[in-house]
């Protein structure tokens, strides 16, 4: 009897291991684990919008204020790129502003685009009510959402609440200067904002004036798709430039028939600009706009176009490397308050078309989308109201600027010569100054010890010329820059 009871007990024990209840419990446990794992692969970002009011008549700006009490949340996969994250945040903030029922002022789409462009907004990570960490390129450059969080943790920029909750509390700061400019154009009622009319008497009664204006026809740009292979540059810690070639074909949409506008001096129909040796025209990958650069056929061949554009991306990567070390020098020496300057490098690449170009008939006008099979793509820079293109030095001219931004650029050029132990001089420094005073540099040239950075390179004699003629300014002195060896 005891033997049978023992067998029966063992049977029930074995049965319970494989019973439907046990299986259900195991499934529930696995689902719970999967949910937790999925949760850790996502990040909730709580976004609040803060407005920098316009400057007063004395040029002073009050502290930013939260835009109403509105806030919103987005959820992103942590494997998404940091660029995608920032674009999603800006789009959400833009929606908060544009769709607010309390925001009665009519604002043009152009103004909204300027206000909420990546080059004008600023981001602040909320560590506490009184501690806001500026989210900049050191946290977001060439990484993923997970990488941004890792960088913030390393800089102790997140609150314990956000770390434990796998969330990120973020402020988006925008400037309303552009709104005033737009209102002045569309509605005379707001003209009192401008100081020159402050002495005029107020109207005796309220009045209504339509803000509607006829829109001039904007030509629609047509695009055509092309398959290409991407190559990018990276810089190692010691400044060595490495190439990475992707074997996966991608698709880029390029403006059609841009060549018919290339004889003009203004951007039109996909045509952007031209220089002495290159054309620039528009393209798009997903929602990102690019400027495509190719050499003019009359001055180039397939081989020289490839060589020149590859040299340009290499130099752009090296310039970006030196800009990072410039701010590292400033941080090490406790030099604060420098304007935000960066190179238009993030996202830049060399593309090579998968399919050959169609031949050009000797009797037809060349209206092909691409001139050569290889092209350089850089993120399209913003322009228009509030943006100003500035040249700080020439290829053979030593910069000697007198405004703050220009002097910092001069100090940056000095830093490059020092940081490279007099083997590299960046020249032809130029860029676009945004309404917030930040600067994006583009299209550099250089002179190097070996004289092999490109057709513009005059070698070490030009570096010596810079050392003889450069005039140090207060930023050079604060950054402890000299021409004695630092290596």
Fold and architecture overview:
The chain is α+β, with helices and mostly antiparallel strands. The protein is 31% helix and 26% strand. The protein contains twelve helices and 18 strands. The strands form four sheets. Strands 6-7-9-10-13-12 form a six-stranded antiparallel β-barrel. Strand 6 (223-235) and strand 7 (241-255) form a beta hairpin. Helix 9 (302-332) crosses helix 10. The longest helix has 31 residues, at 302-332. The protein is globular and about 65 Å long.
Question: Shape, please?
Answer: globular
Distance between the termini: 91 Å
Q: What is the strand tally?
A: 18
Mean pLDDT: 82
Question: What Rg is obtained from the alpha carbons, in whole angstroms?
Answer: 28 Å
Low-pLDDT segments, ≥5 res: 1-22, 180-205
Percentage of β-strand residues? 25-35%
Biggest beta sheet summary: 6 strands, antiparallel, barrel
Tell me the helix content. 25-40%
What structural category characterises the helix and strand content? alpha+beta
How many helical stretches? 12
The string of secondary-structure elements, in order, is HHEEHHEEHHHEHEEEEEHEEEEHEEEEHH
Neighbour order of strands in the largest sheet? 6-7-9-10-13-12
Overview features:
31% helix, disordered N terminus, single chain, six-stranded antiparallel β-barrel, 18 strands, five-stranded mixed beta sheet, alpha+beta, 487 residues, 12 helices
